[in-house]
Predict the structure.
Amino acid sequence: MKRKNFKLLPVIVLLAIQTTAFGQLGNFNLFDGGVNDGVALLKAYMTPWANAFGADLNGGWYNSAKPHKLGGFDVTFTTNVTIIPDEAKTFDLSTLNFEKLSVASGGGTVAQTVAGSRDEGPTLEYIEDYLGTPVTIASFSAPPGTGLGFVPAPMIQASIGLPKGTEITGRYLPNFKIPKTESQIGMWGVGLKHSIKQWIPGMKLIPVGLSVFGGYTQLNTVLGFSLEPLNYEHLTQYTFADFVGQEVDFTVKAYNVSLLASTALPVINVFGGVGYSNTKTVIDVVGNIPIPAFDPTLDTNNPVVRDQDVHTIPSIDIEHKSGIRLSAGFRLKLAVLTIHGEYTYAAYSVYTGGIGISFR
């Protein structure tokens, strides 16, 4: 049982982080102001989480610049923890160029992102004019953050040595559905390390490793939810539509290329790297979403959801902060056991720690 729980640890942690992030939105009908306003609000809220998770997926690939010899291998359990910068914990609602929503007066315009404090933000309103009288279609507070200024991501990976000073690394988590929920997660990744020391005359006598590395990781998560017209407290009339199968699909893609160097001592070694990373997140809201609308021919005081106001939401693309990443760390090798730690400096900095077994 303990072994099974250990294998499920990456799944549990990854899902816990994502369900916590999206769970904050559960009581907030972000699409009250229409599709475009809802997309703008969701994107601004989730961007720091997407950036942090992308940085996590680009970390923990290596703890030495020296590739395994042919047939050598290792299995490593690694945890990456990305720190979200303070400036990414809030955002200004006035910069989102809403079409229908507006910020209620007196409450400021600064709202929390998913990484911000647990305080609700300013009140957002959707108001229509009816014969000179304002009619409130929707009114809700901007959602609170999670209070988490960091995002952990544990993972298990394995590497094996190939000919010509080359090593391949794989990460894989088959699609796993959490029992009694509508949530599932899957991940895969592949990386390749190649020694360039062998091609430089005279370098064989120097006790350092020098390699190039490239890696790609993709994480897919599905979180089920239910949002029907009856969830809207202000709604008194609606036309029935099919709201079955609603879910949020997260796809995070991350890749990096790096130049690596490390010492080649028997027990403890230091390593470092300089490279470029890029990540992208796509959020798909699947299923029909009820959008409140004002129809004065039916009711002059209450919003109405009609068939033409039931929408599917377009894919939301979040381009991450990409650029140079600098990393440095150490590895302790005791027989076949390895313990390593690393720090990566980037737009979203990452701390890494891991333990594994290695047969070179």
Notes: The chain has two helices and 20 strands.
